Structure prediction request, 325 residues.
Amino acid sequence: MKLLATTSAILFLLLISSLPLFSQASNYFPNSIGTTWTFDAALLGAGDTVIAGSEYREVDSVAEYSLLDGKNAYTIQSRLESGIPSGSSFFAFEGANGFVYLPSLPPPLDTLIDVPAAQWITSFKFNSGFVPPWDIFEWDTTITIDSLTIPAAIKISGSREGLNESVTVPAGTFTAARFNIIEQVGIRSGPIFFPFLTMVDTFWIAQNTWIVKHTRASVTFSYDTLSFNIPGARRELVAFTPNAITEEAELPSGIALYQNYPNPFNPLTNFQFTIDRSQFTILKVYNVLGQEVATLVNEMKNAGEHFVTWDASGLTSGVSSKGGY
Prediction:
């Protein structure tokens, strides 16, 4: 007897209103397509002084809100004041955490170090109260310098240095959370990590405004006879223009769970659901006997549309390999 069938599976979506135990990460990001930020930026040399002639102005804008690698993400497109595109970045928010899509290491390290595929990393934690430093990412790799290949390890960690700090930039004075993202390259001896290159990015993030200031200290890398400087950088907010038409206006007015697809499945299927506000969400799958067979979601979710892929091949019995019913 086939206990699970795609059209007869009982889906249980339990929504519990969130308690005010922490700040929502999404409160810091203005979820409006078309919102723009204008920054004054420059490269920093030794002593973190501005490198002459390196100053430029850059404009960021929220271009899209869509699914990216399993998360509902905002795409920010950057361009120089002249209109020349200068890059894209991607952010997602779940509960008190802010995620950044990590495509590669900053140049010139990305040309020297083998890194894994792009992935989401937890860069910011907005929980109230004390937040201990957290590990973001670790990777054992190699570094190639000329014909020399060196075994190495990459480690990225985060820390929140303050939650309500005053910071002044050309756009004004803001109350902001301050974060350090520490990027290290080193060698590993058993469980011990020995860094030989450390870069620190500091972000000041204000509610309903997002990043108002970002700095990266310059560092010097030396190995044997090789030595080079990696310039630092600074970006400060000059102007912030929220779009009057917000993404909130397009969010659902209630709770909905849609038909899974493909249906029948063999053995993967995708579930789509929407919620009208940020809250704790549980999505479970039951068989026709009312027995719970899988928990697909059990965490805080932001308002909006969400997607979950379920692989039923791990169940010992009761799943049709053909997807029949």
Confidence is low (pLDDT under 50) at residues 1-22, 245-249, 318-325. The chain has two domains: 10-21+248-314, 32-241.
